């Protein structure tokens, strides 16, 4: 630095102020010669452009590596490459879809669904592609590994992204999955969809009847059981009998409470006819005895109460009640009824 006239300091040509380049003031910029300033700005711009080209090239290379790995069936490697690209392109729908597809291919459905949702938020038209991809995952899960949990998660996500999507071929496996896990409320709509896909076979109808029974709708369950009672495979014959007997007894008790004696008598007789469940035979005979006694069919009532004693498996209270009712009828110890 030199001093001018009167000792005033002045800048030498080419002098650069020590001020930080990140906080230039107009005065500091003016202190640079125009040529030096142009060179500095050009250098910075070239550096930024080079960095951008390098990042873009790196992303493109990673994307290509991911596509090649996916084509070879190396889904974990493809996923790693796609995720690398996604970090710098969080709102790129194409990258989101590729990464989601890779997540789905390695069975990581939750992460796949999250990315599919983001893609659909950015581009609603991506919903069809996302739903189709999820349904492909579900079909692989049901056809190959029989992974009902993965299939159910994929289908539920597909329905969320594209309500009303076609589930042909998936409804029955999903219904059976939920049924095996005791989730009959979730199984029922899939059983109903499966019934509409093709001519239902006896096993499907029986499974649908079971779902209704487990949900407390014995009346509808009996309707379906009646359809398959003569066609069910021999290995499930005893299951049909048990369910018919169980539902008939439950509906018979409801009929008694409602004062529909004739309906109740018919339902209890249906339980007795199939001989199942074994622990409902004695109560069914006892209820038959009570109905017959009310109808004045005293000898038939006595016979029913005697059979109830023979059929009772646990002994005790019901046997004593049946004996008391026989004595009431024989010795007219009732309350003025027909018997």
Structural overview:
The protein has 339 residues and is mostly helical. The protein has a domain at 44-163: Tetratricopeptide repeat domain (Serine Threonine Protein Phosphatase 5, Tetratricopeptide repeat, Alpha Horseshoe), CATH 1.25.40.10. The chain is built from 16 helices and two strands. The chain has helices at 26-31, 34-71, 75-86, 93-105, 109-122, 127-145, 148-161, 171-180, 184-197, 202-214, 218-228, 237-257, 261-274, 278-294, 298-311, 317-330, and strands at residues 2-3, 9-10. Strands 1-2 form a two-stranded antiparallel sheet. A hairpin with a 5-residue loop joins strand 1 (2-3) and strand 2 (9-10).
Main attributes of the structure:
339 residues, mainly alpha, Serine Threonine Protein Phosphatase 5, Tetratricopeptide repeat, rod-shaped, disordered N terminus
List the helices and strands and how they pair.
Elements: E1 2-3, E2 9-10, H1 26-31, H2 34-71, H3 75-86, H4 93-105, H5 109-122, H6 127-145, H7 148-161, H8 171-180, H9 184-197, H10 202-214, H11 218-228, H12 237-257, H13 261-274, H14 278-294, H15 298-311, H16 317-330
Antiparallel strand pairs: 1-2
Helix pairs in contact: 2-3, 3-4, 4-5, 4-6, 5-7, 6-7, 7-8, 8-9, 9-10, 10-11, 11-12, 12-13, 13-14, 14-15, 15-16
């Amino acid at each position: 630095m030199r001093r001018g006239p009167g000792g005033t300091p002045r800048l030498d040509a080419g002098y650069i102020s020590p001020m930080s380049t990140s906080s230039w003031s107009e005065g500091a910029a003016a202190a640079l010669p125009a040529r030096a300033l142009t060179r500095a700005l050009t250098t910075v711009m070239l550096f930024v452009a080079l960095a951008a080209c390098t990042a873009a090239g790196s992303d493109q290379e990673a994307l290509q590596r991911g596509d090649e790995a996916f084509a070879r069936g190396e889904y974990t490697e493809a996923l790693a490459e796609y995720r690398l690209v996604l970090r710098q392109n969080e709102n790129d729908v194409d990258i989101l879809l590729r990464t989601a597809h890779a997540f789905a291919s390695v069975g990581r459905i939750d992460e796949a669904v999250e990315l599919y949702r983001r893609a659909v938020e950015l581009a609603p038209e991506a919903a069809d592609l996302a739903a189709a991809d999820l349904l492909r995952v579900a079909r692989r899960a049901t056809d190959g590994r029989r992974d009902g949990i993965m299939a159910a998660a994929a289908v539920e996500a597909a329905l969320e992204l594209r309500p009303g999507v076609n589930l042909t071929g998936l409804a029955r496996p999903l219904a059976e999955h939920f049924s095996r896990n005791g989730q009959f409320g979730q199984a029922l709509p899939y059983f109903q969809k499966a019934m509409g896909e093709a001519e239902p076979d006896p096993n499907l109808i029986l499974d649908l009847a079971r779902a209704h029974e487990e949900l407390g709708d014995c009346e509808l369950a009996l309707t379906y059981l009646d359809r398959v009672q003569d066609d069910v495979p021999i290995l499930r014959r005893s299951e049909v009998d048990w369910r018919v007997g169980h539902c008939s007894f439950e509906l018979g008790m409801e009929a008694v409470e409602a004062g529909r004696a004739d309906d109740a008598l018919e339902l209890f007789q249906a339980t007795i006819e199939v001989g199942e469940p074994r622990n409902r035979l004695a109560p069914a005979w006892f209820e038959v005895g009570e109905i017959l006694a009310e109808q004045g069919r005293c000898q038939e009532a006595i016979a029913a109460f005697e059979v109830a004693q023979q059929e009772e498996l646990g002994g005790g209270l019901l046997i004593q009640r049946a004996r008391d009712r026989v004595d009431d009828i024989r010795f007219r110890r009732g309350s003025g009824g027909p018997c």
